Amino acid sequence: RLIFAGVCGLILLAGLPANRLMLLVAGRASGAPRPLLALTNSLMVNITLSDLLFLACVVPVLLLSFLQPDWWLGPIVCTASQATNNATMFCTFYSMVATALLRHMAVAWPDVALPSSRGAHLLLCGAMWGLGLTASLPNWLFQRVVVEEGAVGAVGAPACLLLLSPAQASCYFSLLGALAFLPCMLGLGCSFSHVGWLLWTRPR
């Protein structure tokens, strides 16, 4: 446990300054005159903010949780940290997928006019956060601190768990795969295949 706590401490020490530097660089470039560059830089700012939120709200909780064998940080921290973990993970994932698809559009259809207004950038980044928060809803609703059953006559240990029945868990992971991951994977697969086909059929 102490080793994992030390790893979390190193992640904090290295991650916070690195992401602040990335935010500074990407933030300056987000107003680039080219629409594609401006959009992808806005998504990079989105990814950096998501990583900073993860580092500020999730990694310290992990570090502290490794200091004790049982959950000792209370129900609010349990629910909020796990929900933030899921929200930031999916926000980063969707932002990376959107970046890849935008770059594919620039290669496959270079004449397509991409939106360049600040409102379009905010709408795109807000959509990534909306998708991330939607994916974290089960954590907000069902993540709780429960006392696990111990040996006969022994007091159980508290644990931070996602309280889903087997049927609910099956439904949750099926929906997660079908709605959260599968469309993105299919989109990326089609995107990379199309780029490969364009390169293969390009006149030499």
Give a brief rundown of this model.
Helix content is 75%, strand content 5%.
Please provide a written account of the structure.
- The protein is mainly α and 204 residues long.
- It has one domain (2-201): Rhodopsin 7-helix transmembrane proteins (Rhopdopsin 7-helix transmembrane proteins), CATH 1.20.1070.10.
- It contains seven helices and two strands, in the order ααααααββα.
- It has helices spanning 2-29, 35-57, 59-65, 74-108, 118-135, 137-142, 166-201, and strands at residues 143-147, 158-162.
- It has a two-stranded antiparallel sheet.
- The longest helix has 36 residues, at 166-201.
- The mean pLDDT is 86.
- The chain crosses the membrane at residues 47-67, 87-109, 121-142, 151-169, 175-200.
Any idea how many domains?
1
Architecture, CATH level 2?
Up-down Bundle
Main pleated-sheet profile: 2 strands, antiparallel
Radius of gyration, CA atoms, in whole angstroms? 21 Å
Instruction: Please give the number of β-strands.
Output: 2
Distance between the termini: 58 Å
**Gross morphology:** globular
CATH topology descriptor: Rhopdopsin 7-helix transmembrane proteins
Helix content range of the residues, please?
over 70%
Looking at CATH, the homologous superfamily is Rhodopsin 7-helix transmembrane proteins
Question: What top-tier CATH class fits best?
Answer: Mainly Alpha
- How many DSSP H or I helices? 7
Computed structural class:
mainly alpha
Mean pLDDT: 86
Transmembrane segments: 47-67, 87-109, 121-142, 151-169, 175-200
GO molecular function: G protein-coupled peptide receptor activity
Organism: Crocuta crocuta
Subcellular location: Cell membrane
